[in-house]
Design brief:
The protein is of the alpha/beta class. The chain has 16 helices and twelve strands. The strands form two sheets. The chain has a seven-stranded parallel sheet, with helices on both faces. A five-stranded mixed sheet has the order 11-10-8-9-12, with helices on one face. Helix 1 links the parallel strand 1 and strand 2.
Length: 395
């Protein structure tokens, strides 16, 4: 049996490390073509020794030199690539069968396009790419007849609920959200939120940026736009709901009133494994460190669902508005948010400043339409510069 060779963009992050765990348990089915990282050089070296990729990509020349120095004592040295061009190269390398894009933010857009144009199936955990360049990416996916397999737990759940129903009309997509650590908070309470509090997610273990996005509910806003592109449905048909238990990962309602969803314990190895092995499923509940089966009896008090308060968590309202306005508006929302989250992580602004400054940007920004890839990247940079100025004015 020939193994599927996978290039992992962002191998040292939360998704990347869990993807390698899935691969390590299924060596007869998968192998690693390439790995990439930004700063975790020692971890990348450890992964390289274990999985022996043909190539690695590192964000900076300094990082590449540090990696080469660490690997000198090893019996194996892969090709070392650097920066944006390196990411595009490992995303399109001839020997890779699939690319897992688990990069954070807009830097995932160019390698996603490179993978699509090289006819590589894409396991997708980089929602910002679809938010900013949805039409470009999906046009490339269709033109090159490749698979775009979602890794986000919510979009994987929707994808699974759609299987076997390709010819049935979707009435509604139900996108669930845990509500984050501040579910039920008022605006006044949000004003008192600290960085340490925002970094404590109640259900999931994730990187800092996505954890803050979950706390502000921007993560759900971005996922709404992602779902619109990924499943080709009007944004009005996507309903985001708070589901604190994180058991129903999302669902689809069909025109006969039937709702089909996917349930399970919150473990990212499940959607990662399904994307890698689609249409098959892997035996993830077996062996060492297994995925735990869901104990339905532990929810004897029931599962709860409630609406998102868009007056408190305005980021969700911003996402619906950006999707409806179209053009570069979603890219602007995403770019501005990335700048503001970084500002909050550095404690330059407060938690509610994220949505307050986003609101100012949304009111003043005029979207541009029919953009090329270069045009999207240019608009993204303009919005980032403008958002930094707004952030400085706030201080």
């Amino acid at each position: 049996m020939t193994t599927k060779k996978i290039s992992i963009l962002g191998s040292t992050g939360s998704i990347g490390t869990q993807a390698l765990d899935v691969i390590s348990k299924n060596r007869d089915r998968f192998s690693v073509a390439a790995l990439s990282c930004s700063r975790s050089i020692e971890l990348l070296a450890e992964q390289t020794r274990q999985f022996r990729p043909e190539a690695v990509c590192i964000e900076t020349e300094e990082g590449a030199k540090a990696f080469e120095h660490i690997m000198k004592s090893s019996d194996y040295m892969p090709e070392i690539l650097v920066g944006r061009d390196g990411l595009k190269e490992i995303a399109s390398m001839e020997t890779a069968d699939m690319v897992l894009n688990s990069l954070m933010g807009m830097r995932g857009l160019e390698p996603t396009m490179a993978a699509a144009e090289a006819c590589k199936d894409i396991a997708f955990a980089n929602k910002e790419t679809l938010v900013a360049g949805g039409s470009l990416v999906m046009d490339a996916v269709k033109a090159n007849k490749i698979k775009m397999l979602p890794v986000d737990s919510e979009h994987s759940a929707i994808f699974q609920a759609l299987q076997g129903n390709e010819h049935n009309k979707v009435k509604r997509i139900i996108l669930t959200a845990s509500g984050g650590p501040f579910r039920g908070y008022t605006r006044k309470q949000l004003e008192e939120v600290t960085l340490a509090q925002a970094l404590k997610h109640p259900n999931w273990t994730m990187g800092q940026k996505i954890t803050i996005d979950s706390a502000s509910m921007m993560n759900k806003g971005l996922e709404i736009i992602e779902a619109m592109w990924l499943f080709d449905v009007p944004v009005e048909k996507i309903q985001a709901v708070v589901h604190p238990q994180s058991v129903l990962h999302s669902a689809v309602e069909y025109e006969d009133g039937s709702i089909i969803g996917q349930m399970g314990n919150p473990d990212m190895r499940v959607p990662i494994g399904y994307a890698f092995s689609y249409p098959d499923r892997l035996p993830l509940t077996e062996g060492e460190n297994p995925v735990e089966s869901l104990d339905l009896f532990s929810f004897s008090e029931g599962l709860s669902f409630m609406p998102i308060d868009r007056n408190v968590f305005k980021t969700v309202a911003f996402a619906y508005e950006a999707a409806k306005r179209g053009g570069s508006m979603p890219a602007a929302l995403n770019g501005a948010n990335e700048v503001l989250v970084e500002g909050f992580l550095r404690e330059r602004i407060g938690f509610v400043d994220i949505q307050d400054i986003l609101e100012i940007m949304m009111e003043r920004y005029e979207p541009v339409y029919d953009l090329t890839l270069e045009g999207v990247l240019e608009e993204d940079m303009k919005v980032r510069d403008y958002t930094r100025k707004l952030m400085e004015q706030r201080n």
